[in-house]
Design a protein that fits this description.
Aspartate Aminotransferase, domain 2, single chain, 7-stranded mixed β-sheet, alpha/beta, 13 helices, 2 domains, Aspartate Aminotransferase, domain 1, two-stranded parallel sheet
Length: 358
Amino acid sequence: MIKVKKHLEAINRTLPKEPSRMFKYRLDRNERNEPFSEKFIDQVKKKMSGELFMVYPEMDSVYEKMASWLKVDPAKLVLQSGSEQAIKSIFEAFINPGETVLLHFPGFAMYEVYCNMFQAKVVKQSYDSGLNFDWEAYKGMITKDIRMVVVENPNGFLGVAPSPEELKAIVDAASDKGAIALVDEAYFHFHDETFIDWVDRYDNLVVARTFSKAFGLAGLRAGYLVSQAPNIVSLKKVRPAYEMTAATALLVCELIDNIKEVTAYTAATKRNLTELREGFRKLGIATSESKANFVAARLGEAAIHDELRRVLGEKNILVRRPFREESLKEWVRISTAPPKIQKVLLDELSKILQKVER
């Protein structure tokens, strides 16, 4: 057996086997649950030639299209195979062993995994049981010993977001202390509040985005970073030979050219989110002030969560387990879905709650 590096021994990345999630309503991982239009799929199929599979990806046109769409200089942009690989490149380029990264909790799990991979120290602050977060205290934790501070805008588990003023204060504090400010905007298209326009002002700012959420390309893996040009030069030192597959590049470009496929979905998602939160409210269930394509709902005791997963699972509707953390164990994240599926969810939850009340 080949012995792994000493600092990696404690990292366990083995995933349990699970049944296929294809052709089900996936309310567990924030993927797109609305189909693409048949017109768009037919259009893509016509461009999926065998040549596309045989030739190495040609990325110049993708960078040009992306930069034009984002209205940024191409020199301020780097693409990657998923935002998690984009985030990993920040650790590869900028984080040295022993340096400290400031995280909020809950948050994207790969941040802590990468800290362990690259031997960085972790300092964390948590949301409380009411989903409140003290951004002033978080800002106060940014000292000269912090190498990078992460802010999810909005949070990928609760859907809540700092105000623009709170976010700016965090980036300002990081700038003052010489720390990297990583603003994760995975759910930007649902939130509509972005910090990308501030890249020219802050030389310590990196904005991360993904194509997995609003663009619905979770299965193809595409993401990107925007920062000042010298930072992008450094990030490109650790990029792979090709940032994404040719098929992924094609879909990214086609969706930008047919952006109504994205805007129609985000508009529907916002409507579905409003209806879902209202449905929970009628059942007496508290929810987060989500700005994303999901909501955190306070279902209460574990038995309710377990029964809901069982009943919905029989109907090919997937929901995730509740949070394991003590302060959040009554809460669960539930993605939006077409109205008929959300109605099934709420109806089944209503039946479960009635049984509990008896």
